[in-house]
Amino acid sequence: MSFRTTCPYCGVGCGVIATPDGSGGATIVGDPDHPANKGRLCSKGAALGQTLGLEARLLAPQVGGHAADWDSALGLVADRFRDALAQHGPDSVAFYLSGQMLTEDYYVANKLIKGFMGSANVDTNSRLCMASSVAGHIRAFGADTVPGTYEDLDEADLVVLVGSNLAWCHPVLYQRLVAARARRGTRVVVIDPRRTASCDIADLHLALQPGSDAALFNALLVALADRGATDQEYVARHVSGYREALAAARASDPSLTGLAPAMISTFLDWFIATERVVTIYSQGINQSSSGTDKVGAILNCHLASGRIGRPGMGPFSVTGQPNAMGGREVGGLATTLACHLDIANPAHRSAVQAFWNSPAMPAAPGLKAVQMFDAVARGQIRALWIIHTNPAVSMPAADAVAAAIKGCDFVVVSDVTRTDTTRLADVVLPATAWGEKSGTVTNSDRTISRQRAFLPAPGQARDDWRMLAEVAARMGWGTAFGWQDAAQVFKEYARLSGLAGDLGRDFDISGLAGADYDTLPPTRWPVSARKQGGRFFGQGGFFTADQRARLLPVTPRLPVAATSPRYPFRLNTGRVRDQWHTMTRTALAPRLNQHLAEPFLELHPEDAADLGLAPATLARVTSPLGEAILRVAITDRVARGQVFAPIHWTGETAPTGRVDALVAPVVDPVSGQPESKASVVAIAPL
Ligand code: SF4
């Protein structure tokens, strides 16, 4: 028997068909009927069958490092959260979640901490990934709406990749772009300081100075205006703030990009001459101290030119994780409520509170990820629940974060395998993994897909939503958390979204409340009597008070940390093709480990010569915050003075490749997203 499910890695959200082999494994093929991938898989998805073993799995609860039964472990979690709330109030508790969680798990976590514990201190590792896109969407559109669809990639004549190595980070979308290019000659522009694998198909590569993207898109807005290439009717009917945004764009200096004027002109000419333009952006835009403004500069150009919400055009934020979008939708960020409702809006709060029949509801946003771990370090957070993420490795200033977790009064971690973070926990709860649990995820183009269990839960592993509900019951809230299965959680969530639709929000899947959960096909939201799937904003209809999009004046800001004689290199971080996050799953697949076997540092040949570093030798990389030991890869893919290192390796790997120990916890003031691609470091031979 085969099962249709969804890949657990990136935000492309590919459908896979799993056929269990009867002895704990399964064969995996792409699902030809899934709209995201139509049968394609990348190397990671194709190797999923090699990752299903029980090596390193957590199979029983642990308390204080010793095996415990579920009842005592959950009882302790409930007691410690109850005590923290009673003695120190709702600001003393926090949940740190993950884009790896299923929507149902996310919904229950958000309901428990916001609606019942009364704290908005719930944030997610998606804060590190795409919070600037969320903030940018909300500022411009009035809601966190992705306007377009994957079909737009098939139908565009120009695709601009900004801060996105689509070839490695969203490989099946890249394959889709390659196919479209072969079919219709789609032009591709890559805007990235580093010459990535995506440049293999680029007609133009703009290797701009790190962090200068807003200056380039401001130049585009000026060119659109000066050459009569704005859509004046669209602007007049659907947009506000055009004059102010244009004035700010005129005041900014394109030379900040460091690009030759002729290169900039080519990009401007191509954008202006092409109606069907999709601009795909990702972590290179988002992970910045000015990420929200960079998103705004991109959205300004698409809104001013009316290139939005129609076939083959629009700005497109691609998400890193399999369910970053689902987490955004359920309100798994400290700055949002559920179903794209606004935590700062009293009407929204009271509607959700009435629906949940809950005793408490925070009236303001809670602590974003970096702030949250600062609060842990200060002792403000007394009880912390970390679910499916490894902040001791992946947060900026990872050494300080690990120390903060270790020093916290009470930490519970739910996860699938032992990690650097589970080793710091008071209670470790074994969770079911991909293939063992059931639920839904939402991909980058708003398509909700089912993940289906095709293997039994090993040992004592339990589903996340069930653990959370059992703690809620022990805290006295069993009635509101009394679901029998994930399908019941989803149906409640779908009903709540109908209420959001009634309040004028974009996210409404009330049409799925009565759907057959078991057989639910991939479905793009919204799904309601008002609207079914499709694109947003081709005819306006923004989610602001006056239904107009807001163009925002953007003044480019370069990275906060400046290089200096002591720290003369700018460190860019990112993913490699065949690994995922901190490698807890991908490292199990021998095939994936063959691509790039150990942590490395890309360094320009002239810099390597100056430093006396030969190829494949080891370098000590230091920042004001920490150190990593990395294998030198000499390449002109990076410019002089810039280096690149991957994020995946942990402190246990030799050489030590824990690069987030080097990254400063500098954040965007609006989104709270860290500047993970522009730290300053020193490099020396080991
Ligand atoms: Fe999985 Fe992403 Fe690869 Fe698709 S592109 S198979 S979702 S990792």
TrEMBL record:
Cofactors demanded by this protein: Mo-bis(molybdopterin guanine dinucleotide); [4Fe-4S] cluster
Source organism, top-level taxon: Bacteria
Signal peptide start and end residues: none
Keywords linked to the UniProt accession: 4Fe-4S, Iron, Iron-sulfur, Metal-binding, Molybdenum, Nitrate assimilation, Oxidoreductase
4Fe-4S Mo/W bis-MGD-type domain segment(s): 1-56
Protein family per UniProt: Belongs to the prokaryotic molybdopterin-containing oxidoreductase family. NasA/NapA/NarB subfamily.
Name of the protein: Molybdopterin-dependent oxidoreductase
Annotated source species: Plastorhodobacter daqingensis
Lineage: Bacteria, Pseudomonadati, Pseudomonadota, Alphaproteobacteria, Rhodobacterales
